[in-house]
Amino acid sequence: MLKAIYPGSFDPVTYGHLDIIRRSCKIVDELVVGVLNNNAKMPLFSVEERVKMLKEVTKDLNNVAIAPFGGLLVEFARETGAALIIRGLRAITDFEYELQMSQTNHKLEPGVETMFLTTSIEYSYLSSTTVKEIAAFGGDISQFVPEVIGKELKEKMKAKRSV
Ligand code: ADP
């Protein structure tokens, strides 16, 4: 049985992430989406909120689980019993960092491989950061995130403005 983890911040999940999740779960038997609990990155949504949103938008997929994690990625892979880490590559700018990470992780844990899926062209420009920027200025984000995520983003922005 092939089990994989797909780690990231998912702050919040976009159609680009969902595309990688859907394609990955056709390749592997079980996919665990690992939601990074790292306050140093100053996420807009708490890890609990990000996990909840991911659960909502993947509820139609029967071989996907969502779990928070902190600390070393290879440690999370060991704990989960995953032999594979999946990452998405959008552009050449992602490449150098991802290469370094995958080689480091392989040194730390030779039993775990990293596999890259290249983005679908229609999502190659898409990132959580740009979605948050557009939402902050009240722009239309319906092409970038599922409706429920758009609603959560609007509420979060409203709450932030009233602080
Ligand atoms: P991180 O902080 O780990 O980069 P992200 O949540 O931004 O976390 O991304 C998680 C993973 O999803 C990364 O491998 C990233 O390259 C990939 N990813 C993000 N956006 C897209 C997209 N539009 N198309 C394909 N892959 C993407």
What is the terminal separation in angstroms? 48 Å
The helix fraction, in percent, is 40-55%
Q: What small ligands are held by the chains?
A: adenosine-5'-diphosphate
Order of helices and strands: EHEHEHEHEHH
Tell me how many strands there are: 5
Based on CA inertia axes, which overall geometry fits?
A: globular
Spatial sequence of strands, sheet with the most strands: 3-2-1-4-5
Biggest sheet overview: 5 strands, parallel
Structure overview:
- With 163 residues, this protein is an alpha/beta fold.
- The chain has 6 helices and 5 strands, in the order βαβαβαβαβαα.
- The model has no long low-confidence stretch (mean pLDDT 95).
- It binds adenosine-5'-diphosphate.
- The site of adenosine-5'-diphosphate has 15 residues, from helix 1 and strand 4.
Brief digest:
This protein is of the alpha/beta class and 163 residues long.
Sequence-ordered SSE layout with sheet pairings:
Elements: E1 3-8, H1 15-27, E2 30-36, H2 47-57, E3 64-69, H3 73-80, E4 84-89, H4 92-108, E5 113-118, H5 128-136, H6 147-161
Parallel strand pairs: 1-2, 1-4, 2-3, 4-5
